[in-house]
Amino acid sequence: MRSEKLQTFVLSSLDYGDSDRIVSLFSLEHGRIKAFARGARKSRKRFGPALEPFARIVIQAHIKEGLSSLQQADIISIYPAIRADLGRIAHALYACELVDVITPEGHPVPRLFRLLAAYLERLETTAAIEDDRRFFEINLLNILGYRPSLETCSRCDAPFDVGGAVLQDGGEALCRFCSAGGRPLAPAALTTLAACLKTGIFGQIHFPPEVLQQAGNLLNEAISAHSGRRLKSLEFLQQISR
Hints:
The chain has 242 residues and is of the alpha+beta class.
């Protein structure tokens, strides 16, 4: 088992025993991995603040299935502006927990790594807004192959007409003929989400209030269906938003 140097983001961190730590990392080279950092809570020289959530670091580790062994971590950025603002912290923690619960272990997803990097850089330089959160979510779902249908009914494949679509539990968007009830999805909500997939740059897509609400409903349902559980960071995010 050889040591590897990896580019990673810290998704979460858990104290273990008196001095150790288990960290969940999202790496460019191996996707999501878990690593055991022996003595991480006592050795400031080896790890320092590098294992705090949403830090971007370069690690030296022995990679193996299950629990890898972390030898060293060097900080690229701990995003000080994010850590100085509660709203930005909430959005960064949410993005990292979402990646943590929805990505397969041990499978590299370079496009998602770049998306997470871009979102954290955006939060570092700009106040947290719901438009950016929804932009991140729809692109994440698209990259992982979980994107809900935005153009055609997911049952009969008919194109959505001027009446838009109807949202079902689980994030399914149906035409009016296939649905027996549900929440409305106006054409503007569908086209705005589709526009998010045509640019990789945060801040270029604006969600009007009604569009933001309907697009949010669709994304919430789709994410809930694929994450398998309610995210703790989402509750914190909602409290901050209120």
